[in-house]
Every structure is written in C-alpha cells, then in structure tokens.
Amino acid sequence: MNKRLVLDQKQIDITLRRFCHQLIENHDDFDNTVLLGLQPRGPVVSDRLVELIEEIKGIKVPYGYLDATFHRDDFRRREFPLKANETKIDFLIEGKKVILVDDVLYKGRSVRAAMDAMIAFGRPQKVELMVLIDRKFTRDYPIKPDYFGRQVNTLESQYVSVEWASKGFEQDAIWITEKVKS
C-alpha cells in the first residue's frame, strides 16, 4: 500500500498546541465559548484540546460530542444504515460561540449535517470550524475551516487516515493512502 506521512506525532502535538493558543487569543477565558467534537473522530481531537487548554491556561472549557448521523443528506441512501454515535451535550448553546472540531474536512457534508443537528441545542451566536486536515478542492458545500493544521491536495482515489495512540496505534500520525478497491 502506498502511504505518505502528512503529520507525525511531534507535528500533531505542535498543531494542537497552536490551536489552543489561537483559541485562547480569540476566545478570552471561554466565558461564552464551547467546543463540540464531531462524532465519530472529532472527540479525540477535542478531548486533547480541552486537556491542553487546561494545562496552558488553567481553565476548564465546556465541551461535548455531537453526532449528526440522522441529519446527513445520504442517511437513507446507503445500502446499510449508518450507526449513530453518542451525542453528549449537557449545556445549551444558545448565544454561545461554538467551535466544531473534527479530524479531516473532506466534502463538507458532515459539517453541514452537524450545523443542522446543533440547532436542537439552541441558536449559537457564532460557529467556527477547526480541523487537523483540510482536503482542499474536494468540497460539495461552500465550507472552509477557520483553523486547520495542514491543507492537502488529494485525489478521489486517496484517503486521509488519522491514527491515534489512544486508539491502539503505535503513535499519533496522519497519512494519505490509496483507497482499497473492492
């Protein structure tokens, strides 16, 4: 299999710390800001951010997990139904600044669905998007991240694979690989 390393453990750590400093600069003491990790892979990123912000700034950031499965435009178009993940939001987002956090931005479909799902918890004052990897030139929707770790040019035949040590991989790493042909 052809693999190309995009970010290694050290680069991911640097990127996450940079994200934290950007958030601290832009959102003061998080009095009116919350983070929402987009299921299924965004919570890994948001959990790390929350830990780092607490380490750097000494404050606890309100955060939760948002599943948008039933809001996806392709939910009923699949041969097998999608399996929903947990939504865990124990606060209202009415009037809050919301940072949606995910690992990879590809077509924009998940982000669009997440914005629909988020409305069930109130109308936010502002919504921003933070992703580790922005796959440029692949959007189906006019969505772009406010914060990104790396922008990559990829082909439809390629896949961005994010590996986390906390999920059983040897170390944190992000790769571009060829999709397996069925």
Keywords:
alpha/beta, about 30% strand, about 180 residues, PyrR_bifunctional, Rossmann fold, five-stranded parallel sheet
What does this structure look like?
It holds the Pfam family Pribosyltran. This is PyrR protein. Residues 7-164 form the Phosphoribosyltransferase domain. With 182 residues, the protein is an alpha/beta fold. It has a single domain, classed as Rossmann fold (3-Layer(aba) Sandwich). The chain contains three helices and eight strands. The chain has helices at residues 9-26, 42-57, 109-118, and strands at residues 3-7, 33-38, 63-66, 97-105, 126-136, 147-153, 158-163, 173-178. Strands 3-2-4-5-6 form a five-stranded parallel beta sheet. Strands 1-8-7 form a three-stranded antiparallel beta sheet. Strand 2, helix 2 (42-57) and strand 3 form a beta-alpha-beta unit. Helix 1 (9-26) crosses helix 2. The radius of gyration is 16 Å and the shape is globular. The two termini are 14 Å apart. The model has no long low-confidence stretch (mean pLDDT 92).
The major β-sheet equals: 5 strands, parallel
Helical amount among residues, as a percent range? 10-25%
Number of domains: 1
How many extended strands? 8
Topology:
Layout lengths: L2 E5 L1 H18 L6 E6 L3 H16 L5 E4 L30 E9 L3 H10 L7 E11 L10 E7 L4 E6 L9 E6 L4
Parallel strand pairs: 2-3, 2-4, 4-5, 5-6
Antiparallel strand pairs: 1-8, 7-8
Helix pairs in contact: 1-2
